[in-house]
Amino acid sequence: MKPRVLLVEPASFPSRSQDFGVPHLLALAAWVERECGVEPVVRDLRHECSPERALREALDESRPRLLGLSCYSSYDYLDTVATARVARAAAPDVPIAVGGYHASACPEDFTGLPELFDFVVVGDGERRLAELTTWAVGGGERPAPVLTAERPIAPDELPSYPFHLLERYAGRARRGAKLQLNLSRGCPHRCTFCMERAKPDRVWRALPPERAVEELRRLDRTFPLAGAVLHVTDPLFGMRSDWRREFLERFAASGLRPRTAWTLTRTEGWTAEQLALAAACRLSLGIGLESGSPAMLERMGKTGRPAEYLEGFLRFRDDAARHGASWAVNVLAGHPGETPDTLAETRSFLDRLFPPGRPTGGWLSVDPFRLYPGSEVHRHQARWTAEYGARFHAPRWWLDVRERDVASELVDPSRALDALARLHATFTQLRPIALRVAADFRCADPDAAPVFARSLEEQRDALSPEAYERRLRIYAVHHPAVQLPASPPAPGDLGLELVGNDEALAAAAARAFELRPGARCGLVGDDPRRAAAVLRAAVGETGLVLETSLRPGRARRVLGALRRAAGRRDAGRPVVPPALGAAGITLVVALGAYPAIPRALAAWLRARPGRRLVVTVGPRFGEQRVLHVASGPDGVRERTVARARLLPAGGPGGWIG
Asked: In the chain, N or C: fewer CB atoms in 10 Å?
């Protein structure tokens, strides 16, 4: 039996459970198998029901000579440490090596825990992992605790990806996960906020185009691309125009057609012909605009010619529209040096890029600046403080057990703009533009449309009032000189409409979630005839109407009656109450105001991932929140989509008898 090496991706925070594939671990596995003659074993704990048990079983079954842990980003640091603790307790004699972006940026975070980590690999890990494997299998002089890549790996030196090592997770891959693959490494650009700078070298290097397409064919044979979302996770896709053109031509001619594909690139060098090829391949392009302010673009290291850079986005938009290519841009709010004036410049450029009322094949995401270890900003915080007055209130945020996703944002960008003012400006000035762009987005491909709808929904969640309020609470704890505003922005300031009756509520739900005429939507109310009229106003047809008082004590009896009524027609009523589960309803609108989400509907939602509920929650006769509640694989999420002044639910069991 060959000696084994176990390579592990920890269960991570925030969850990336929709991502399938660990191309960095597969590349390492293929290399050590070829160079050292060992048998690699790969475990992705993100897709295990019980990550700790799965790790212990893998250690027990494979009895590895070496354990390699991935700490892909700083958000994964505490999870990597926790994984190492489990492994050390289960197999105390197995040496543990760690690599990844955070390991490259902050090796001291691991060498400071010698009881857990024996080795840290900085940069490309293949050769250094082979060195460790040779030592672990054959003995000899023990390698140094920190091993730095001497020279970058050229991707065409790598063996083919061993996709079969992930067959344990094949069921997960076929349930809508994003299939991940790397076709290139490195990025020569010098963006000051980017973690790519943690690596010793940043030379762009790619698989030859014919080899890149062959890797896609091999992926397709193991995990079919048809119906899947493909994520090409390169730091910078297609930096060279000649490579990009040849790859796209080969991809388009290959017959491989994912449901949609996604990658990150820049606008420079993209021709109209290449955008047409990208559309033919169903390849959508994500581009970091980052700012519409010329001064900020230079401070960020995005470009030395900001005027030309910004005009290039306008040309790219027009070429993409002519050829049906889908794209998205990201704006980074609050990078050190940001001021109210630079945010205003960004807002002005976004109105040029996305003219109001004009359909677009692109959309906008807005992110806060986050302090990434290894980035230029992280390494030179004192300079940014001296020059712009930036202050970094959580410089080691990755040690925060619960709130590291928000603590990483806790930066005062400048003397003129602190973290709370940046938060307020993001939600009151940039949020309305992002929501408007989402409403104007059009996708001609019916297969890809649901994927894009999910992305737009995630952006709405990230810019929801709930997200604002959570950040406000966390900032108040961590900011040393916090002066909280009296209250969050008024709902009207956040672009939330006010609805005053059931018809307006249903219509608002239909608009917010882009329901089309004929959508399978249900309304919960006390009067089925009136509810039917509301539904017709909202989605253009009678649809499905549910009759229930929603009193918690009656929930089981009500839902039982609905199940018995499923599929039955009653000539005495215009709508037959169907069973919620059997009806195939994706959205339910609960009419009237409720003090809290009715338990019957909450239980129905939790049991059915993919379903959605709109319900008006709040005081009897005051202003209520219109909540969108969605059930998915990561639990139930709430988001405020409007405000309302509605009468309480009436009828039997309602507030008004």
From this structure: N
- Helices and strands, counts by H and E, the chain: 24, 24
Whole-Å CA distances, 494 to 354, 460, 473, 615, 640: 19, 12, 18, 19, 10
Query: Within 13 Å, how many C-alpha atoms sit on residue 432's CB side?
Result: 16
Both structure tokens of 462: 């990230």
Structure-block tokens of residue 257: 């057609």
Given this model, what pLDDT does residue 272 score?
96
- The amino acid sitting at 336 is P
Look up residue 490 and give its DSSP letter.
P
CA distance linking residue 329 with residue 134, whole number of Å = 45
**C-alpha span between 50 and 45 (Å, rounded):** 8
Strands 624-632 and 635-644 come out as: antiparallel
Cα 352 from Cα 329, distance rounded (Å):
13
Q: Angle between the 209-222 and 241-253 helix axes, to the nearest 10 degrees?
A: 40
Positive or negative: CA dihedral 10, 12, 18, 19: negative
Alpha helices in 429-497 (DSSP H): 431-440, 449-462, 465-478
Note the pTM of the prediction, 2 decimals: 0.84
406-429 burial code (b ≥16 CB/10 A, e <16):
bbbbbbbbbeebbbbbbbbbbbbb
For the chain, the first-to-last Cα distance in angstroms comes to 76
Question: CB-based burial of residue 384 (10 Å sphere; 0-12 exposed, 13-18 middle, 19+ buried)?
Answer: buried
Maximum Cα–Cα distance across the chain: 87
Contact between residue 594 and residue 649 where contact means Cβ atoms under 8 Å apart: yes
**Percent of the chain scoring above 70 in pLDDT:** 84
The tens digit of pLDDT for each residue in 492-503 reads: 667 788 888 877
pLDDT given at position 550: 42
Residue 653 CB contacts under 8 Å (≥ 6 apart), including other chains: 549, 550, 551, 554
Whole-number Å distance between alpha carbons of 350 and 292? 7
pLDDT in tens, 322-369: 999 999 999 999 999 999 999 999 999 999 999 998 999 999 999 999
CB of 29 within 8 A of CB of 40? yes
Torsion angle (degrees, nearest 10) of CA 244, 247, 252, 256 = -130
State the Cα–Cα distance between residues 33 and 49, nearest whole angstrom. 28
Angle at Cα 158 formed by Cα 157 and Cα 163, nearest 5°? 160
Judged by DSSP in three states, 419 sits in: helix
Q: Which pLDDT does position 114 carry in this prediction?
A: 96
3-state helix/strand/coil string of 381-404: HHHHHHHHCCEECCCCHHHCCCCH
Q: Quick one: how far is CA 296 from the chain centroid?
A: 25
